[in-house]
Amino acid sequence: MSQDVKQKRKRLSGTMQPEVATEKKEDRVLANANVPPEEFNWAEHEAGCPSQTRKANTNLKNIPHGWKVLCKDPYAQDFLNILMGHEAETPNQQMSIEAGEIYTGTIYSVNTEWVSVDIGYREMVYVNYLKEEASIRESFIVGNEVKIQVLQMGGARGFVLGSISAGVKTAVAAEIMESIKDGNTAYIGKVANMIPGGGYIVNVQGIDCFMPGSLAGINKLPDFESIVGTEMYVVPVSFSEKRGTIVVSHREYLKAMIPSKISDLKENLTQDLSGNVTGSAKYGVFVEFNECLTGMIHVNDLTPELLKAHKAREIQPGDAINFKIKEIVSETKIILTQLDAKPVVDLWEGIEDRIKAPTQVIGKVKAVKDYGIFVDIEKGVAGLLHISELEGIDVEDIKPGNDINVKVTRIDASTRKIFLKL
What digits encode the pLDDT tens for the residues 184-214? Predict the structure, then answer.
């Protein structure tokens, strides 16, 4: 090939080289700016995007199959939720929240600084972990349902800020206030401290309540400081406008236990019991036992040692004392003894079967009163011969201990009354 031909071909090939466009990244970005989503050129965008070499955020939930989320900012999950259609379709259907209100949510994530809570809003509500109460932090487990109070909308960090502690306290306080209406709900409370002048601060599920000293037990406490630091069941009874606190009562809880405690006691009347002295009088000693029951030991039923101590006024409230049941008259009247006496038999039980009215019996005069004569029909069972039945009879001739022939006209065992006539 001649030198001229070679030079010609060289010139021709140079003129035929295609021109390569050198498009800048800024041009691609501008080309996709401010265009509707359906017109966005993904191929052109990805041509200069380094996303293929970036690591995906694997801490997110509900990532659709085949998706690769690269964003690692705190709002990544919220933005993903919006993209997946979790946000309402129209603005009018979107959830609105207000600062100060209480919402129910689910804990989404927890770290040493922040707790995020999903309440169904378009954003997570963030809780400052370090500002929450230690007792409340125990519930900070992913998936747990919690009450949360919104504190601030779009704070310094641009997040919705809230407090689980405040939400729990407000919700619990509302529940306790509601329970005052029926008066039969008991809560476990811890007696935090005494108040000068009488009473206690009792912490009920994070709420400080007030308990007057008179409501701390069935009887007056021998040592008012003895219950500080202890846990006990209390019943909300009222709201103190003066103190701005809920008033609770341990006494009401104990009173509700009395019927079941009495029932248990009747199953074993011969058991040895122990309790604490609550006070004493000239005729006996009062004892509290089985948490909520109060009985009395008559001076005649005290051991010689305790009788001597009683006369010397050496028995003090709070002293431990042993005893047995002598008789259960009612829920509020229980007779105790320190002597080995057999339980008293109720002589009225079955009286209507033993004595059929009307019937004639010979009784013994027990007492003579202005309104009639009491006659023992059986030992320990007396009836009344009313004064209207004694016309023409000199009552002064009738003395206690005399035998008398009477007619039983009616027996009412429920009221323990027997009606007589001559």
Answer: 889 999 999 998 778 999 998 888 899 999 9
- Provide the pairing of β-strand 102-110 with 417-421: unpaired
- Cα-based distances in Å from 4 to 8, 253, 396: 6, 119, 173
Asked if the 184-254 domain carries CATH number 3.20.20.80, the reply is: no
Angle (nearest 5°) at CA 164 between 161 and 167: 100
Alpha helices per DSSP H over 107-190: 134-137, 164-179
* Selection from 110, 128, 70 nearest residue 79 by Cα: 70
The kind and range of the H/E element at 258 are helix 250-266
At residue 410, what are phi and psi to the nearest 5 degrees? -160, 145
DSSP H helical ranges for 114-249: 134-137, 164-179
- Dihedral sign (CA 397, 400, 404, 410): positive
Name the token pair of 255.
Answer: 């009173």
Domain formed by 351-421, architecture:
Beta Barrel (2.40)
Kindly state the tokens that stand for 86. Answer: 């979790």
Tokens of residue 414, six digits: 């429920």
Q: Is the dihedral of CA 402, 408, 413, 415 positive or negative?
A: negative
**CA gap 311, 315 in Å, rounded:** 9
Pairing state between β 381-386 and 417-421: parallel
Residue ranges of the chain that CATH labels 2.40.50.140: 95-171, 184-254, 268-337, 351-421
Query: What's the CATH fold of domain 95-171?
Result: OB fold (Dihydrolipoamide Acetyltransferase, E2P) (2.40.50)
Separation CA 190–CA 205 (nearest Å): 9
Using alpha carbons, select from 45, 53, 46 the residue that is nearest to residue 28.
45
Proportion of the chain above pLDDT 70, given as a percent:
81
User: CA–CA separation, 104 vs 168, rounded Å?
Assistant: 10
User: In this structure, are residues 366 and 382 in contact, taking their beta carbons and an 8 Å threshold?
Assistant: yes
| pLDDT per position as a tens digit, 314-350 | 999 989 999 999 999 988 899 999 987 555 567 788 8
The continuous run of DSSP H or E covering 211 comes out as: strand 207-211
Lookup: tokens for 348: 């009225």
CATH of domain 268-337: 2.40.50.140
- Residue 167's DSSP bridge partners are none
Q: What is the pTM of this model?
A: 0.51
Cis peptide before 358 (omega within 30 of 0): yes
Q: Which amino acid is at 269?
A: L
Residues in the chain: 422
Query: Would you say the C-alpha torsion 169, 175, 178, 182 has a positive or negative sign?
Result: negative
